[in-house]
TrEMBL record, chains A, B:
InterPro entries found in the cross-reference section: FAH, Fumarylacetoacetase-like_C, Fumarylacetoacetase_C_sf
Name the record gives this protein: Acylpyruvate hydrolase
EC top class named in words: hydrolase
Domain of life where this protein originates: Bacteria
Length: 283, 283
């Protein structure tokens, strides 16, 4: 099942992706839907039912960030072995974690504007959306609590990220992490069996990894995080990026004003973001 | 003016601290009060008015975390010169920032329970609470947007903090950062003129710093953060800890089960937290 948050006629709604369009669901977005205790029953009902005249035609809607209001956005760095090696590090015993905010997220086709940074870099990622409350969860419990998967690009302000030992400030610029375009429910997709994660810059492929090579699987990450903090429906966990980021290149390569960044996980969908850097443009 | 969030008769309320007790304010806590556009007018009205029979006697209330639901809790590390030197680092050009969650916070007298960590350490801090929305703010604008100040202890799980390069996982255990006991409004307190920040362990003073030695003042921090992410009323910024933390001692010293940790900023108040470590207790 594919779910989305869409704008139609000036309003937003959670929706089920159906033939030809989007079947509205009883919530303004997927964050609100997942907060309903009965969200699974609502989906079952919607997916088994009619697709009547209330289906919104695909041509009339705009796809938005599916989960706009997570209380927690937690990201894993250094989780693909080849990316770890390109960054000059050893394989980790523990996941490297940092936080973003709901404000950091943006829509799947939104422009990325970061006037105060000149070293923007790409990080294509699989994102996991939590479907039920998790605390001190085993991997099996964590796997069962995954609502679904979506695509993210953890666009990073490397100049700010390197200012101090802590990456956070280079990872938390407002509206710089596109998410979407849909949420694929966990029963329909198995990252451990292998999903390609692809990043293309102005038509040139710069990243291609496979989630079966993740050091820490989605379920492992959720289980680990739940040891120290509770995860709730709608929370988002980014699973890390494969090799091929700009700062790993010789010489390093960063995003330029006007660049077209495309992030794709076949089976989920594609993010397409134009980079807008007023500082870079004037250099 | 001193403000608090108190529990009385099974309900919570925001309150103004008055002679003999707490004058209820029209919100369930200070997070909700600060989210009201007219919170300053409400305070003015309450402070100029009568203190009638609806004042809650101090003996009947429990002081809670004053701001229980910030969307953002951002912390500065390495901000007192003597603490920076004891950690073996150089004075910074930029603030080192990391994030916590609302879930990380707890009440001023709550026990601190962290079963999964064995290296708990103390970090007494001045906390700043935001009173109006800030984006790309100058230092003057940031100073004017401070609602007030409170006391925090950024209790840190050093074993988890050191597992990876990123401190976050050792800083975000649920209910390990006590906050309170009151919020002192910005007009009544000037950290740049100097506030003592004191931490006492089982009656022994382990930390004493002064906020006039902060490398980055409260207003500087808010201005800097607002360059990359918007700050809103009720958001919390922790300003860093002075010298004297346990991991800086030779040999390092960590909290033990049953320890009594007292954190004080004269002019604001005192946090008093008992440490409960089931893992340590069984060693």
């Amino acid at each position: 099942m594919k779910l989305a948050t869409v704008r139609h006629g000036g309003r937003t709604t959670a929706a089920l992706v159906v033939a030809g369009g989007y079947q509205p669901l009883p919530a303004r977005n997927l964050s609100e839907l997942l907060a309903l205790p009965g969200w699974k029953a609502i989906l079952k009902e919607a997916s088994s039912g009619h697709c009547g005249p209330d289906v919104l035609p695909a041509s009339e809607v705009e796809l938005l960030n599916p989960v706009p209001s997570p209380a927690k956005v937690i990201c894993c760095g250094l989780n693909y072995s080849e990316h770890i090696l390109e960054m000059g590090r050893e394989l980790p015993s523990f996941p490297t974690l940092f936080a973003k905010f709901a404000d950091t997220l943006t829509d799947p086709d939104a422009p990325i504007v970061a006037d105060e940074s000149v070293d923007l870099d790409w990080e294509a990622e699989l994102a996991v959306v939590v479907g039920s409350t998790l605390k001190d969860a085993s991997e099996d419990e964590a796997a069962a609590a995954i609502a679904g998967y979506t695509v993210a690009n953890d666009i990073s302000m490397r100049d700010w990220q390197r200012r101090t030992l802590q990456w956070f400030q280079g990872k938390a610029f407002d509206r710089t992490t596109p998410l979407g375009p849909v949420l694929v429910t966990a029963d329909a997709l198995d990252p451990e069996a292998g999903l390609e994660v692809i990043c293309t810059l102005n038509g040139e492929e710069v990243q291609r990894g496979n989630t079966k090579t993740l050091v820490f699987s989605a379920a492992k990450l959720l289980s680990y995080i739940s040891t120290f903090t509770v995860l709730r429906p709608g929370d988002v966990v980014l699973t890390g990026t494969p090799g091929g980021v700009g700062m790993g290149m010789v010489p390093p390569r960063f995003l330029k004003d006007g660049d077209e960044l495309v992030t794709e996980i076949p089976g989920i969908g594609t993010l397409s973001n134009r980079i807008s850097l007023r500082i870079n443009a004037s250099l």
